[in-house]
Amino acid sequence: MSGSFIEHEAFEGNKYMSNNNVTKFQHIVAGLAPDKKEALYRKMKSLPENGRNEMIDKVVAAYETRKMTIEQPVAAGRNTPPANYSVTPSHNKDHFAGRNIMTVGTHNKKTVTVGNTRNMAAGRNMKLSVQRSGNTGAAIVAARRPGVNPPIKSSVAAPAVRGSVSAPAVMSPAARRAALRAEAERKKKQAETVRKVLKIALMVAGRASVVLVFSLVLILCGFYTFLGIIMKGPSPHLRDQFVSSVMESSVGGVMAQLVLSDEEIAEILNRNKTQEFDTITNTALVKIAPKNANSNANAVNPYDPDGDGVEIHEISGPMYRGVMMVVHDPSRVKVSTLEEYNHRGAGYTLKEHIEKSGAIGGINGGKYEDKGGMGIGGWPEGIVIADGKLRMGYPGGTYDVYGFTKDNVLVVGRMTAQQAIGIGVRDAVSFGPTLIVNGVAAKYSGNSGGLNPRTAIGQREDGAVLLLVIEGRKTASMGATMADLIDVMKEYGAVNAANLDGGMSSAMWYNNEELVSSSSIRQSRKMPTAFVVLPKSASNNAQAPAKEA
Fold first, then answer.
1. Average pLDDT for residues 464-468, to the nearest whole number?
2. Is the pLDDT of residue 452 over 50?
3. Dmax over Cα atoms in the chain, in whole Å?
4. Spatial CA neighbour of 387 closest among 352, 426, 445
5. Helix residue ranges per DSSP H, 157-298
6. Dist. CA 58–CA 39, nearest whole Å
7. In sequence order, which ranges of 67-172 are alpha helices (DSSP H)?
8. Phi, then psi, of 82 in degrees rounded to 5
9. What CA–CA distances, in Å, run from 304 to 309, 325, 408?
């Protein structure tokens, strides 16, 4: 009844005012609750015609000035208005082109209109679209379902409702373009900053590289000049000494080859070498004293304070220092070697050889495969005899043999493997050259060789074994020549002596102490052979019976 009065009787045609205000007023009334419609009906019925017109104008003007513009997603159970909002659902299905709306009370003198509560309760996702109305700044908010109701564009963003889940405001095309331009500008500045940092880093790296390269060039030029002064300078002795020393090392020969030709190097080496012997040891010259032979059993040997039959002597010369180990009982000295040889396998360090053999000391042994100074000691070269068995070499092959017979006599000289086994050699390795044979020292020319770490083995006439190791390639000890080794061996009474593997392999251990350290810059060298010294008690089993005539 009241609705028909308001919607038809009171507003048909242009009875009270323009159709525009009547239509707006009808929209406003359609969104009211029945009781409010009834109250408005009674009030307007009591008014004269002019009063009704004035009331319609006031309602429309008030409605338009209270609107605010918002657009945000609405979902079931979300966007609950604050306590000071009153919620009045709208049931007008065709209001604003069929969009369902709901007026969400007033707050701070602004009216907020959202979608139908039944749609929100059903969990339908809807967005609040805003349409500006008139020039008064008011706005009407319509809830729409995505894909069903067409969007209503807005240029006014509404503040988030307290207690609700806010969503980003839909931006106008102009604002979106401005935001994209700002983002592009930000990325451009960021990229420019990265380019500047990279440019600075590359500039610093480039300058550092130039300085490094320049420094290396200066060092190389200085080093080359140094080599030139040594090998092309006024001192032939210094040149020969340097060339002989570097050519005996695994990789040092390249320094001589940078300045000198192969022919010049060969000529220098021929002028500075040790003579090779044609003879071998005469075992009859060595008279090994019986073990119990001791003229003064109570005498204390200052070089053997613990009485274990091993003396330790420190030696030195103009360019070297080292240690001489004297083992009174030659039966205690034997060759330690690997169980199997392998080109790609690793040998033992000297300490490992000593531990494996249950020995108390030892020195490095014979030569082995060592390409470029990077060998790992898995493959010996020359001959290896251990415990009377030929472990490396061919019976008919000729080798430099340095080792002990079953009668504990040191044999030095060049012979076939079959000859060595035939004269009763029990332990032997190869290297060279021979230093002393049957009491006669080798002859040499020039400086007899370079200054390098050295290892040598010898035997006195009474059978005592001489194990000599010289430190080298260090500031305190440059190394020794072959002539130096001969002089030291003669000083200690050697009747037979030979040079063993030297260089980075040279080392000596005794009683868990490294008396002479290897000159290797990496670690202790691994090697396939070593001469080890057995404990005094173990030598009884190793001692062979005296040779019978």
1. 98
2. yes
3. 163
4. 426
5. 173-232, 236-247, 253-259, 262-271
6. 16
7. 95-98, 117-121
8. -65, 170
9. 7, 10, 21
Report the 10 Å Cβ neighbour count for 542. Answer: 16
Instruction: Name the strands in the sheet holding 529-533, side by side, starting at the edge strand that comes first in the sequence.
Output: 333-337, 529-533, 361-364, 508-510, 513-516
Query: With contact defined as beta carbons under 8 Å apart, do 389 and 371 qualify?
Result: no
- Residues in Cβ contact with 310 at an 8 Å cutoff, skipping those fewer than 6 apart: 304, 325, 326, 327, 328, 360, 361, 510, 533
Any idea what DSSP says for residue 8? I
Q: Are 152 and 98 in contact (CB under 8 A)?
A: no
Q: How far apart are CA 294 and CA 120, in angstroms?
A: 118
- For residue 394, what is the DSSP state? -
The residue written with tokens 């090779």 in the block is 276
Residue with the two structure tokens 């440019």: 199
Kindly report the backbone phi and psi dihedral angles of residue 517, in degrees, each rounded to the nearest multiple of 5, phi listed first. Answer: -90, 155
398/415 Cα distance (integer angstroms): 5
Rg, Å, the chain Cα set: 54
Question: Which residue reads 């005498």 in tokens?
Answer: 299
The mean pLDDT of the chain is 79
Residue type, 312: I
User: What does the pLDDT look like over 332-375, one tens digit per residue?
Assistant: 999 999 999 999 989 999 999 999 999 999 999 999 998 777 77
Q: What local confidence, expressed as pLDDT, does residue 413 receive?
A: 95
Neighbour-count burial for 442-466, b at 16+ CB within 10 Å, e otherwise: bebebbbbbbbbbbbbbbbeebbbb
Structure-token match 């017979």, residue found: 405
Per residue in 174-215, pLDDT (tens digit) is 888 899 999 999 999 999 999 999 999 999 999 999 999 999
User: From CA 289, how far away is CA 297, in angstroms rounded?
Assistant: 15
Residue 222 clears pLDDT 60, i.e. is over it: yes
Please tell me what DSSP assigns to residue 172.
P
What gap in Å lies between CA 19 and CA 12, rounded to an integer? 9
Report the 10 Å Cβ neighbour count for 51: 13
Backbone angles phi, psi at 341, to 5 degrees: -105, 145
Mean pLDDT of 412-423: 96
Report which of 515, 482, 479, 519 is spatially closest to residue 497, judged by C-alpha positions.
482
Each residue of 502-532: pLDDT tens digit?
999 999 999 999 999 877 666 788 999 999 9
Whole-angstrom distance, CA of residue 166 vs CA of residue 153: 19
Dihedral-angle region of residue 153 (phi above 0 means left; psi in -120 to 50 means alpha; beta otherwise):
beta
CA 154 – CA 290 distance, rounded (Å)? 120
Distance separating the N- and C-terminal Cα atoms of the chain: 154
Give the other-Cβ count within 10 Å of 218's Cβ: 10
- Structural contact between residues 365 and 469, judged by C-beta atoms closer than 8 angstroms: no
Which pair of structure tokens corresponds to residue 295?
A: 């003229």
Please, are residues 74 and 120 in contact by the beta-carbon 8 Å criterion?
yes
